[in-house]
Amino acid sequence: MPRRRSEAAYARARKVIPGGVNSPVRAFGAVGGAPVFVSHGYGSKVVDVDGRPYIDYVMSWGPLILGHAHPAVVKAVRVAAERGTSYGMPTEGEAELARRLCQAIPSMKRVRLVNSGTEAAMSALRVARASTEREGLVKFEGCYHGHADPFLVKGGSGLATLGISSSAGVPDGAVGRTVVLPYNNVEALADVLKRHGRSIAAVIVEPVAANMGVVPPKPEFLSEARRLCTKHGALLIFDEVITGFRLRYGAVQDELGVRSDLTLLGKIIGGGLPVGAFGGDAGAMDLLAPLGPVYQAGTLSGNPVAVAAGRATLEELSRKVYARLEEAARELAKGLLQGAERRGVEISINRAGSMLTLFFGPGPVVDFAGASACDTKRYAAFFHSMLAQGVLLPPSQFEAWFLSTAHADEDIEATVRAADAAFARL
Ligand code: PMP
Known about the structure:
This protein is of the alpha/beta class. It has helices at residues 4-16, 71-82, 92-104, 117-132, 172-175, 186-196, 221-232, 253-256, 282-285, 304-317, 322-342, 368-372, 376-388, 409-425, and strands at residues 38-42, 45-48, 53-56, 110-114, 136-141, 161-162, 178-182, 200-205, 235-239, 262-266, 276-280, 348-352, 355-359, 391-392, 401-402.
């Protein structure tokens, strides 16, 4: 069925917005075809401008753990907006959100609110560099930490590759201190820290990776990273922009039993409004202005409407929702695997709580090289078949599917049925 209004909207948008979108993955480049333009969302569904509803597994790329337009969040936003949308002055609400975050995440004694995960990552790196008086950064291939210059580095396969920018406009100098290593590879990290340890300010990692598709850490990966960072005096930064409050109430680091020095948050803690946060112990965080020499600021940081949405979301999440999310995601993964097997399609699924990725390949996928070896053409065909049946998946193989508390049994069953038909047609 054609999506005429979406196509027309896309054509109009392309005249004034580069590529017609404000974030590249939305353009459907990895799966082809015109993007779906959304009219509105409710619960587990989004409705496109042609009036077609979809069961949504993009969920704004993670923030909407309560589903679209959750009544408690909408009410909090409305009440806050009626009191003024921004003051540029401190409020009690932002301190209350910060208190909640610190209470939920023991490694976080101080936290600063920003407007995006990108800002959280670049600011945390600045703090780490100031705190250690070093410049080097280690990141892992396939992990994403927003689009600030030092993180936009392409990793070579296998061995460590020193800073080659993967974006035009990023000077080599900005990434020249960034080392990229394969995810889940303790030996590579030990080797780099042994050789360059004294110049490494921070090791940044998604404790459960979700930007090459979902890739959980091997059991010793994070604990070894912790040990090595402590040994070499580098700060360990966990990017929990996706995992924060997604897998439990708080950070996944406390489930995995490994604490970071600095933690990045975003997405869920803003309830679907623009928010990020970074925090850690007072020693590092109190280096920030106005207390210390590390400059960092924001006109809209701690915005009262975003803070209200975040607080309402955390309040709902404190009511033991995670068991139900786990059960729904487990059922979905089970149904997908059964469907693929019935239709003779080779897939593997990586899942952590309410996020999962279906890879077209034998698996198990444990790093970026493994994710890259999967059949993205098959994913594109599967994606479009699902879309035609009213299921919106992330428009790329290398992304997580997100469930919400609004995804009901009927949604899961309908998705599994659609997938069965999609597998049959591959
Ligand atoms: N870190 C992680 C783990 C992310 O997934 C993202 C965005 N998907 C970011 C950082 C950047 O966040 P933002 O898009 O809000 O800048």
